[in-house]
From TrEMBL, chain A:
UniProt keyword Transmembrane helix, yes or no: no
Pfam family for this entry, one: Radical_SAM
Domain of life, per lineage: Bacteria
Keyword Glycoprotein assigned: no
Keywords assigned by UniProt, alphabetized: 4Fe-4S, Iron, Iron-sulfur, Metal-binding, Oxidoreductase, S-adenosyl-L-methionine
Name of the protein: Radical SAM protein
Automatic annotation (TrEMBL), chain B:
Gene3D superfamilies: Coenzyme PQQ synthesis protein D (PqqD)
Organism of provenance: Candidatus Competibacter phosphatis
Protein name, UniProt field: PqqD family protein
Lineage: Bacteria, Pseudomonadati, Pseudomonadota, Gammaproteobacteria, Candidatus Competibacteraceae
InterPro entries associated with the record: PQQD, PqqD_sf
């Protein structure tokens, strides 16, 4: 059996293979298009609750654990949690802005957490463009220095870039930068509303022409490590893995079907993740929805199904159901 | 020392999980994924628990109602494959 077949089994069999933890919404940068609702509040999960969650997830066969935020390294117990997750054999991914990951902290990350990959956000190929997004002067130069130090330590690093109206003129330079420093670059073209419903970030969505140009650029760079999140859906029984092979947990213990599908399926202050996974009506309805969507898409023409879209954004009203 | 009496442990960069009746092993440093069948996954889990091959054979014989002689041969072969693939390493004697 192949890895893809195993993933299919996880999606079709409702096995939470990948879980994303938004540890904190604190951040040392201030990205304009950040989707976090920083006015949202609640009682943070304690270290003991996270440890209990990890044990439950291990029993549920979760393999990938992504630490996200905000900036996950801003969580006061990040290293305690990371080390615990490592001890329980999770494949750990860290989504970071890289601002604090200088040599000392990067070494600590490697030694104590040993992540499979650190995903770092790159917003431009120049300080002016990158820092227009981060709203922190000096963050571009500091990021390049930190990337160099992470690579020297042997950390596996991937760059993530979202195409925006602000950086679309630099897409070639950003790809060239990634190649020059020998890091894979993953493009995303989807800007989403903030979790509080604020649609302001959509004002800087990339133009259709820029998205088309990026496709051309990636075609030219086929075979390099520059890729885009627009692949057609795999032949699963569900359109995506939301609430089927994955979950997202926010800092207050709210459990969501995925990072985009912000409809709470339960809260870890009141129930454990196994009960939520097995009994939540929200998760059950999401699985029904994505199963129906997979069947609908399968019945459409190849032209209509060649491009991926996010059903959560359709469902929550923030996107366009352009392919259906 | 005969290979059968050695103890092994998972290499530090190895992660694994059982997904339904199959298993997945990731070698982090190489970025390589192995997909194992149910028995293979069980062997990895028992190695991770610290069992040496004879103990693994005894456990599998009980769990799968299989012939211990045949299992001993299969486990020895599989352990050698895991070792060659960099999934396990010989545990240092104390």
């Amino acid at each position: 059996m192949s890895y893809q077949a195993l993933l299919t089994k996880a999606v079709n069999g409702n096995i939470p293979f990948s879980v994303l933890l938004e540890l904190t919404y604190r951040c040392n940068l201030d990205c304009y298009y950040c989707y976090n609702d920083r006015t949202n509040g609640g009682r943070s999960l304690s270290v003991a609750q996270y440890v209990s969650l990890f044990a439950d997830l291990r029993e549920l066969a979760t393999m990938n654990l992504t630490f996200s935020g905000g900036e996950p390294l801003a969580h006061p117990h990040f290293f305690t949690l990371g080390a615990r997750a490592r001890a329980l054999g999770f494949v750990i991914r860290v989504k970071s802005n890289g601002h604090r990951l200088n040599g000392r902290l990067a070494r600590r990350l490697l030694n104590e957490v040993d992540p499979f990959v650190v995903e770092i956000s790159l917003h431009g190929a120049s300080a002016a463009t990158h820092e227009r997004q981060t709203q922190v002067a000096g963050s571009f130069g500091r990021l390049l220095t930190n990337l160099e130090q992470m690579q020297a330590l042997g950390l596996r690093v991937q760059l993530n870039s979202t195409l925006t109206a602000w950086n679309e003129t630099e897409m070639e330079a950003m790809s060239a930068l990634a190649e020059r420093i020998a890091l894979p670059l993953r493009w995303n073209v989807q800007i989403t509303p903030r979790d509080n419903g604020d649609r302001a970030p959509l004002d800087i969505a990339a133009s259709p022409q820029a998205i088309s140009r990026l496709r051309g650029l990636l075609e030219q760079r086929r075979g390099t490590e520059t890729t885009i999140d627009l692949d057609p859906p795999p032949p699963w029984g569900k359109y995506c893995g939301a609430g089927a092979s994955g979950l997202t947990v926010d800092p207050w213990g709210n459990v969501y079907p995925c990072v985009q599908w912000r409809v709470p399926a339960g809260n870890l202050h009141r129930e454990n993740v196994r009960d939520i996974w097995e009994r939540s009506p929200v998760l059950q309805s999401v699985r029904v929805r994505t199963e129906a969507l997979a069947a609908t898409v399968k019945a459409r023409t190849a032209e209509a199904t060649k491009e991926w879209f996010c059903p959560a954004l359709v469902e929550t009203g923030g996107g366009e159901e352009r392919l259906l | 020392m005969p290979a059968n009496s050695l103890s092994f442990r998972l290499c530090a960069d190895v992660r694994y999980r059982q997904i339904a009746d199959e298993g997945i092993v990731l070698r982090q440093q190489a970025g390589e994924v192995l997909v194992l069948n149910e028995v293979g996954t069980r062997v990895v889990a028992l190695l991770d628990e610290g069992l040496a091959p004879p103990g693994i054979v005894a456990r599998l014989a009980a769990e799968f109602d299989a012939d211990p002689g045949r299992l001993a041969i299969d486990v020895a072969g599989f352990v050698a494959e895991l070792r060659a693939a960099g999934v396990i390493e010989e545990e240092a004697c104390s």
